[in-house]
């Protein structure tokens, strides 16, 4: 017993310095957001308590509600596209022997490119004068010569999401491959002996076995989708006409461009609570999934 | 042994953490002890501050080119350091300057001096973060040689809170070679302008090159031109004084005309939202566009002489309505804020005033590609070998600034909430995401809020 207490004290001592740094740099500023969310504050003056005004304003803030819609679209894209791509390619790669390493590395390559670099490069690709549009024009394909998705309010969000997907799906591939490697080979053998076809094996063996990984992926994507910022900011800063505005860009603009730090804190707090709610719901689903397994 | 190493490492980490906090506390204490505002006499006698310590002044500016930084070094910093060898001046250009500065200053830190737009002065001044320049105003006789309206633009509640660094008069930059090819003259009226734009479109050219992707703040250029040349400077002044609203027929008409010109494809073929401003400049450089929204800063500072292989010119933006003259908007291009917490307020003011007061040095700096200071410079002070591009720009700017009719550029005169709203939402009108009436109603709400917060028009 004595030894256990000593061990705990030792462990605490090791954690303490890092925890103190975390407390000062992350926890205290994060908690201060709760206070500022109920104030009128421009980031420079003394915050003035204004009750629930910021939250009332949020309900009629068209830009914020539009950002919410965009975040949901963004989240839907990332819940579906990289997963299908990653899982699909992982299923193929696990069957092609040693050469899979080469393909896996090639697919993973975009993940090591920084968001800034990828965003800038794709901005050039998307330019109507120096990108894909002008390439089509040179080929004489007039119909695609006007391809300028970042200047089109209906395409810009998908164009930015495409770049993030391009960057991200290689990681999902690796994640899914490692999950597939952990599936007990005996289960596949048993299914084959029972005469199951490929689709039945996928549906009844593979997917249930990698379900915890998929749910973890969902949790991760949902949180990441609520906080996505880099690609949108680098490529469009929420434009054109607010078409790519997401929570983070709206919060950033509100706080650091319009200098409404109090309202920005209220927006941040709401997003934080929203993400937490979704996180807990998914954790519940994950727990039930484990119980079923 | 291992146990002792663990204990030692833990102790070291804890001590260094505590030491870090301690150092900050000491710095803060030192800052509080240091004199916050010194007398004007001290500024004239820097030796009063010479106590053997190495003094350091940090200037933070926008992310300007190396050649621009060199001009700062050659004409502002070096001459000052020759006079004050004990002072080190660090000049740093950073992207996203305004946000960074606000966070730093708000946290009680930040550089000694920094670039700022005059529309941000009330926020900083009202919270005590800017040094009050008023004591230095008389000492350096600023009113004797600096433009009155530029000084007014730096005032908050009747007192100066920033140094007016540079002034500009907006302009239309045009490609004369292309105009000649199209058989057109430089436009003076709305009809001329529309005629050229339509002819340019038919010839496969872009009438006006303009890109604002990721930089909504640049939308300020088009609406400035349209308000100035459709509603006029007087109406703009009335609007900003709260005497008329955004629903005034002339103000509304200016925005409606801008929207119509966007729909007609005059403004970069409606692709401005897809390209950055750099690319729009490249289009103009490569003779794909006839006009450019940008004014003197483009040819004084941002485009090295000799880059354009065509005949070009600058003039006031053409009239957009019968009876309204072609006009430019004047504005304070750059202001310099001095941190109220600086240890060396006198030296900071002196650093810039030494430059502004020396007409010859100002002229040399401008000839080397510097923004035009907020003072008049006699033409005889400019060097003989000054690049023709700069001489031409200065002539046009001088002419536009002294014209009978001038407007007021938003980035120098509009209150901040209103300016940010217009910049952030104008393209929603372009893209039909917001109708013009709603846009103007919301702009009016912002203006009323600004006026209620104490904004005073400085024009």
Automatic annotation (TrEMBL), chain A:
Name where it's found: Cell membrane
Which InterPro entries does the record cross-reference, listed alphabetically?
Answer: ABC_transporter_permease, MetI-like, MetI-like_sf
Where do the TM regions start and end?
12-38, 72-94, 106-126, 166-183, 214-234, 261-282
Name the UniProt key words of this record, in alphabetical order. Answer: Cell membrane, Membrane, Transmembrane, Transmembrane helix, Transport
Q: Name one Pfam family in it.
A: BPD_transp_1
- Give the source's domain of life in one word: Bacteria
Which part of the chain is the ABC transmembrane type-1 domain? 68-282
Task: State the CDD domains in the record.
Answer: TM_PBP2 (cd06261)
PROSITE patterns hit by this protein: ABC_TM1 (PS50928)
> Which example biological process does GO assign this protein?
transmembrane transport
What GO CC annotations are associated with the protein?
A: plasma membrane
Q: How does it sit in the membrane?
A: Multi-pass membrane protein
Task: Give the family per the record.
Answer: Belongs to the binding-protein-dependent transport system permease family.
Q: What is this protein called?
A: Sugar ABC transporter permease
**Organism (species):** Diplocloster agilis
UniProtKB/TrEMBL annotation, chain B:
Q: Which Pfam families match?
A: SBP_bac_1 (PF01547)
Signal peptide from the UniProt entry: 1-25
Quote the biased-composition stretches of kind Polar residues, using this chain's numbering: 34-50
**Region entry Disordered, spans:** 27-53
Keywords recorded for this protein, A-Z: Signal, Transport
Family membership: Belongs to the bacterial solute-binding protein 1 family.
Matching PANTHER family, A to Z? ARABINOSE-BINDING PROTEIN-RELATED (PTHR43649), OSMOPROTECTIVE COMPOUNDS-BINDING PROTEIN GGTB (PTHR43649:SF29)
Name by which UniProt lists this protein: Extracellular solute-binding protein
Which source organism? Diplocloster agilis
């Amino acid at each position: 017993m004595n030894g256990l207490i000593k061990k705990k004290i030792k462990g605490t001592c090791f954690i303490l310095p890092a925890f103190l740094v975390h407390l000062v740099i992350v926890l205290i500023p994060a908690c201060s957001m709760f206070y500022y969310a109920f104030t009128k504050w421009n980031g420079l003056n003394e915050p003035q308590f204004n009750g629930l005004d910021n939250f009332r304003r949020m309900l009629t803030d068209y830009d914020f509600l539009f950002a919410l819609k965009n975040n949901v679209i963004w989240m839907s894209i990332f819940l579906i596209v990289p997963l299908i791509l990653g899982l699909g390619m992982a299923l193929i790669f696990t069957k092609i022997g040693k050469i899979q390493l080469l393909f896996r590395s090639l697919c993973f390559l975009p993940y090591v490119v920084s968001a800034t670099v990828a965003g800038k490069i794709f901005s050039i690709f998307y330019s109507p004068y120096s990108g894909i549009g002008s390439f089509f024009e040179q080929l004489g394909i007039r119909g695609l010569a006007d391809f300028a998705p970042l200047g089109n309010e209906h395409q810009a969000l998908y164009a930015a999401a495409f770049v993030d997907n391009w960057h991200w799906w290689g990681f999902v591939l690796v994640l899914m491959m490692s999950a597939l490697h952990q599936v007990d080979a005996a289960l596949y053998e048993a299914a084959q002996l029972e005469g199951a076809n490929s689709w039945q094996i996928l549906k009844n063996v593979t997917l249930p076995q990698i379900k915890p990984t998929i749910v973890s992926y969902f949790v991760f994507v949902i949180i990441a989708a609520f906080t996505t910022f880099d690609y949108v900011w680098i490529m469009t800063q929420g434009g054109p006409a607010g078409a790519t505005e997401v929570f983070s860009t709206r919060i950033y603009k509100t706080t650091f461009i319009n200098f409404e730090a109090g309202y920005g804190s209220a927006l941040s707090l709401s997003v934080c609570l929203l993400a937490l709610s979704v996180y807990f719901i998914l954790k519940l689903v994950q727990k039930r999934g484990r119980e079923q397994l | 042994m291992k146990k002792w190493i663990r204990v030692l490492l833990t102790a070291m980490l804890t001590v260094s953490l505590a030491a870090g906090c301690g150092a900050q506390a000491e710095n803060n204490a030192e800052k509080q002890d240091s004199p916050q505002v010194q007398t004007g006499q001290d500024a004239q006698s820097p030796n009063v501050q010479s106590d053997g310590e190495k003094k350091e002044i940090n200037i933070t500016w926008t992310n300007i080119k190396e050649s621009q930084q060199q001009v700062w070094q050659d004409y502002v910093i070096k001459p000052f350091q020759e006079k004050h060898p004990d002072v080190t001046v660090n000049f740093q250009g950073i992207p996203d300057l305004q946000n960074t500065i606000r966070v730093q200053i708000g946290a009680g830190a930040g550089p000694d001096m920094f670039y700022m737009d005059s529309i941000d002065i009330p926020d900083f001044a009202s919270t005590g973060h800017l040094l009050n320049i008023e004591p230095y105003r008389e000492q350096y006789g600023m009113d004797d040689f600096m433009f009155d309206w530029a000084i007014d633009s730096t005032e908050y509640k009747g007192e100066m809170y920033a140094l007016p660094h540079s002034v500009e008069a907006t302009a239309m930059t045009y490609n004369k070679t292309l105009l000649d090819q199209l058989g057109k003259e430089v436009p003076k009226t709305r009809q001329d302008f529309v005629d050229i734009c339509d002819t340019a479109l038919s010839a496969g050219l872009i009438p006006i090159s303009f890109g604002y992707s990721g930089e909504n703040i640049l939308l300020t250029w088009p609406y400035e031109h349209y308000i100035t040349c459709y509603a006029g400077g007087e109406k703009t002044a009335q609007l900003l004084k709260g005497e008329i609203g955004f629903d005034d027929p002339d103000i509304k008409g200016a925005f409606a005309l801008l929207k119509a010109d966007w729909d007609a494809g005059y403004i970069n073929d409606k692709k401005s939202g897809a390209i950055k401003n750099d690319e729009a400049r490249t289009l103009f450089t490569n003779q794909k566009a006839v006009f450019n929204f940008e004014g003197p800063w483009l040819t004084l500072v941002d485009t090295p002489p000799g880059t354009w292989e065509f005949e070009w010119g600058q003039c006031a933006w053409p009239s957009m309505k019968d009876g309204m003259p072609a006009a430019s908007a004047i504005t304070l291009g750059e202001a310099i804020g001095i941190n109220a917490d600086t240890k060396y307020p006198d030296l900071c003011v002196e650093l810039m005033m030494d430059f502004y007061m020396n007409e010859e040095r100002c002229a040399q700096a401008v000839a080397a590609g510097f923004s035009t200071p907020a003072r008049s410079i006699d033409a005889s002070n400019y060097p003989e070998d000054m690049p023709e591009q700069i001489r031409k720009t200065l002539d046009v700017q001088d002419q536009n600034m002294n014209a009978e009719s001038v407007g007021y550029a938003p980035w120098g005169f509009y209150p901040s909430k209103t300016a940010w709203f217009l910049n952030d939402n104008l393209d929603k009108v372009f893209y039909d995401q917001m109708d013009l009436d709603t846009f103007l109603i919301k702009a009016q709400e912002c203006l009323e809020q600004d006026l209620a917060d104490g904004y005073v028009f400085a024009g």
